[in-house]
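Replying to the earlier thread about multi-chain prediction with a worked example.

Input:
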Amino acid sequence: MMTLKVNGRDHQIDAEADTPLLYVLRDDLALNAAKFGCGLGQCGACTVIVDGKAVLSCVTPLMLLEGKQVTTLEGLGTIADPAPIQRAFMDEQAAQCGYCIAGMMMRAQALLMRNASPSDEDIRNELEPHLCRCGTHMRILRAIRRAAGLMNRADLSSEPGAVR
Amino acid sequence: MSTLVLDRRRVLAGSGALVVSFSLGRAFAQDQAAPTPSPPGSLKTSPYLDSWIRIDADGSITVFTGKAELGQGFKTAFQQVAAEELDVAFASLKVVTADTGLTANEGYTAGSHSMQDSGTAIQNAAAQARELLVAEAARRFDLPADQLRTENGEVVAPDGRRAGYRELVAGDLLHVQAQAKSRLKDPATFKVMGQAVPRVDIPAKVTGGAAYVQDMRLPGMVHARIVRPPGYGAQLVDCDTSAVEKMPGVVGVVRDGNFLAVVTKKEFQSVKAMRALSAAAKWKETASLPDQDDLLRVLTSLPSQDSVIFERNDASAVGQSTLEATYVRPYQSHGSIGPSCAVAQLNGDTMTVWTHTQGVYPDRQAIAEMLRMPPAKVRCIHVEGSGCYGHNGADDAAADAALIARAFPGRPVRVQWMREQEHAWEPFGPAMVTRLKASLDREGKIADWNFEVWSNTHSMRPGGAGCMLAAQHVAQPFKVPAPKPLPLPEGGGDRNAIPIYALPNAHVVHHFIPEMPLRISAMRALGAYHNVFSIESFMDELASAADADPVEFRLRHLDDPRGRDVIAKAAQEFLWKPDQRPAPGRGFGFAFARYKNLAAYCAVASEVEVNGQTGRARLIRAVAAVDSGQVVNPDGLTNQIEGAIVQSMSWTLYESVSFDETRITSIDWQTYPILRFGAVPENITVHIINRPGQPFLGSGETGQGPAAASIANAIANATGKRLRNLPLTRKRIKDAIDT
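Result:
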């Protein structure tokens, strides 16, 4: 048994210590967003945020996560109350099949948390570990730029809880 | 006045909803008396309106399609079409997709047919359903139908009386065969069609909702992994499973001939058990694969069935100078980001399979054959997977799940392929060779044209069990069905082999190669990708020989007015000029095709940068124009074309399946590199030429060929060197520059 903090809540996990985080999220916690794409750290579909940094959950074993904070796409917002990054991907219709999108969004979220106004080159460099096969790249880039705008506007407003 | 005759009641299988039917009386008697031309789209094969549209007594409206949502977004487009013709709010409908228990049999979701077949059926079924509702209201109001109108799910009379669809259908619902003709709405009055309605599936996909077959979690579900042979034809000679059976969570090992799988309670346990089982398995391999570096010789020396598919002669046109060129395409991978997955469950004598197949009915047939069950006892339900772009591992995973589930009655079994399995075992897009020869006359017009294409079939989709890996690998294997060329006018290897241009002399030969050294099947655009790449590259070679601008040269040979319009539009929006000069190291390219010569038109102008030191080519910007008839969702269409250009760029610049004598060696994203963000263009714009009231023309694949040729032409423009072997890799470009 190990305690894993996911999306702000503690979970008791009964899994072998070498189990990659991806399988714990999907199998033990029934979370859908992080996706199995390669299991090799080559495609980015499994990306989640651990202590503020984008992490490839398919190659990160459970044993390394004691005491750390894991955030998945589910932890950012909901359909009824989407986070800026989710709002932006909806606004830009930035998906075709959408399988790679959750991973892209988590890395973009991590980028925007440390750099509120990334350049286009910053965004492209950041997304280099991620593959999209439908060719939705132009929309993904637009959505991330839009998310940056939404988050900056939210920052300016004094409304508590507006920033995620 | 129509008379409604209640003739039949039935409960729709699996839904529990009461569907009541009627046949029509006199109102449509004239239509019925006429010799019956068949109704449009898939209404031809599934003519009952309630196969497509159901209005329940509680007012809920369901649209049924036999097509599968693969990420193209047509579920939203179908909902728009139905809402428009029924005159109801978009949000008041829901769409149910391919399910052998619920929907019509529409074969495969392939060939850019969804809007043409299913969209057309839904549009006409909805229009005819609305007409029947109006007729019923007319009867109740005792008014002529032509005095009534519909509005937001109600029929409204001039005196203000209203009847909701739910009241009109209550107790006497629609079960009637479609008429050949529908009174469709005037496109000028469209409220929902033609609008960029946001896709219905995106909110769940960006918030972690369950959206894919991979996300299914049924009570008591177990996890399976397959141990595939190391290569085609490998035989399992020994496998001691005893140690694996004692591993944590293992529920069982399934071994049937060369089919080997392990089932566990938790998912990662199955990965570990698979690795142990793989280490325990001893295989005898056979060296059967050809030389990957000599596909030109391999393909042109295999036995072929040759047919002349197009011939035109005009002795008055005389060529002066002749050009010849040979183009080669390698085997290429669908490369789905999510490896294939399926869930199956045997309950009593019924097998249910949840699958991201493109064809639930053919898949059901194949699985039933493999399991030796009656097809009626197998239900295939489509659930979205990662984008497939053709026939990937989806059907094989479905067969795997069904075979394993049979061994564990009652338990839902989820099979997830691993990355290396998807890469090594998916049926690839076939390698192809084209040989072109043409002459120009004194005026710089093409006088004669010869085109030969060598290719395998482009569909080994199930229908027969032998198309699926599991059925090939079991101890009593099913034979792989004999491959067949796909018939024209759509074609397979010869798709788009017949030139759209008006040429006085033309001769087109299809060399169909039955033998398949690698496992192959349908990949987005089939032969059209390579044939259009070849034709449109060669058109530029000819334009250059004629000292003509590539856009003007195409227009010089094209009569089709809609084709001319998309060429003109793309050129105009790109600011294409005959005397244009690209910046140093850059080139401009242009290409055009009408997909299958009968679906959507697409022209692509591009600007490419080539690094002279490294040979690396990068698409800087692309401008596309597309005509897909009446547009239902312009943003959805734009998304498809943008995606086609980007994906085709990746195929064209980077991609080829690699193999040695015994094994596929491109087994992950390191060994099969595709586009990454650093090489994404700066800008892609798509211009739609809408054709209100015209038939829907499939557009999901129309961009693949033109994008490839446009990029190749831009590289030639930038470097002065013509590359004819796909992919146009950095090394090939560098070698061409250096020679």
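The longest helix of chain A spans residues 137-156.

Feel free to reuse this layout for your own posts.
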